[in-house]
Amino acid sequence: MRPVTGRRPAAALGTLLAAALVVLPATPAHADGIRVRQWSLEAMHTEQAWQTTKGEGVTVAVLDTGVEADHPDLDGNVLEGKDLVGFGAKEGDRAWARHGTAMAGIIAGHGHGPGNADGVMGIAPEAKILPVRVILEDGDSSRAKARSTRGNALAEGIRWAADNGADVINLSLGDDSASAHPEPGEDEAIQYALRKGVVVVASAGNGGEKGDRISYPAAYPGVITATAVDRYGTRAPFSTRRWYATVSAPGVDVIIADPDHKYYEGWGTSAAAAFVSGAVALVKAAHPGLTPAQIKRLLEDTARNTPADGRDDSRGFGFIDPAAAIKEAAGLKPDGLKSAAHGEKYFGPGPDTEGSDGGTADWAAPLAGSVGGVLLVATVVLWRNRRPDREGF
Questions:
Q1: Number of compact structural domains in the chain
Q2: Is there a catalytic annotation at residue 64?
Q3: Which position among 40, 71, 99, 370 bears the catalytic label?
Q4: Active-site residue, selected from the candidate residues 64, 175, 258, 321
Q5: Of the listed 172, 203, 215, 270, which one is catalytic?
Q6: In CATH, what number is assigned to the domain containing residue 94?
Q7: Beta-sheet pairing, 59-64 with 168-171
């Protein structure tokens, strides 16, 4: 796709980076087996953080494909949002809100059943989700329409979220195509949100095995960018390595909730961003007066499994630890710090589209549903021995 100055296809954010769904035979699991598989809860020291807060009073805007508000793990936690796409799948369709629901569950799922012991538990289970639909699912049949429809849904969505109560904005999406470049409207929208005290979190990209190309919105100044690691703290091979990496978070073997009320296992830096947004929600709930810049610095200073030189492009400052950040924040006072810019050298015209690998950008870039950061290859259904339909995700 050749860039169009100042505009992008409505609800489209570049090359289609999410891999197709690969469905394997269902793994036998009872409902309570879902929680056991959520290795991220223990890895992120959530029990320690929850002694202080579970995110009550904080709103996380999920700019994505929509969120299934009636999912039992999210019931009561989803606010009325905004649809900035305006076409495509609707509630009840298979291509509706799969990715966005997965991200919302990671952030603020509260489980269900007696004692909420079943289903997905999010990092901030008492936070609220503000859904803002800015992209279509990869499997949406309306992708062809998106090719000829122009708009700037992402920038509009960021501003709308900042003006409608968001404390945190989660961007589990991105463009790291050969033609990717900074969009002034998106950059300005992010700076607008940051000035209003809204923390912005984005996924680093899934281009670690495809050249580590720069991904936007991850590369914009002030954004907290999440890379993906496995349960051993090792960088996931697909996770993009770039200067903008802030912290790492779980991105492999992640249990996710789906609008079909089944549970899947997936991967991606989308998931990592959602985990970081949940962690930020906990910090904001415990210390609501802190600025986005202070919170970013806190996450950097309190990260675990720090790289040998203190930071690297694959894991940032290390694995996120919300409990440590909450404790450290007790000694801080809001001081109006501003987010640090990376400098103009990182914002040139963007890579030349000529000679791009595989030619994917020519056909995939205009497609709506580019959840580019991104989750998710869903591989295993984990709910009551049922098998999913054989279709894309």
A1: 1
A2: yes
A3: 99
A4: 64
A5: 270
A6: 3.40.50.200
A7: parallel
- Domain with 137 in it: 17-333
With H, G, I as helix, E, B as strand and everything else as coil, classify residue 168: strand
Instruction: pLDDT tens for the chain, 393 residues: list them.
Output: 222 222 233 333 332 233 222 222 233 344 458 899 999 999 999 999 999 999 999 999 999 999 999 999 999 999 999 999 988 888 888 889 999 999 999 999 999 999 999 999 999 999 999 999 999 998 777 765 655 343 589 999 999 999 999 999 999 999 998 888 999 999 999 999 999 999 999 999 999 999 999 999 999 999 999 999 999 999 999 999 999 999 999 999 999 999 999 999 999 999 999 999 999 999 999 999 999 999 999 999 999 999 999 999 999 999 999 999 999 999 887 654 444 444 333 333 333 333 333 332 222 222 233 444 444 433 333 332 222 222 222
Residue 83 domain-assigned (yes or no)? yes
Does 99 participate in catalysis according to the annotation? yes
For residue 254, being part of any structural domain is answered with: yes
**Domain assignment of residue 164, yes or no:** yes
Please report which residue ranges of the chain form alpha helices under DSSP H. 31-37, 39-43, 46-50, 98-108, 143-147, 153-163, 184-195, 269-286, 292-302, 322-329, 360-364
- Cβ-Cβ contacts under 8 Å for 15 (sequence gap 6 or more): 175, 176, 177, 178, 180, 360, 361, 364, 365, 370, 372
249 phi and psi angles, rounded to 5 deg: -155, 170
Residue 379 forms part of a structural domain: no
Q: What is the pTM of this model?
A: 0.81
Q: Write out the two tokens for 83.
A: 């649809």
CA distance 264 to 29: 12
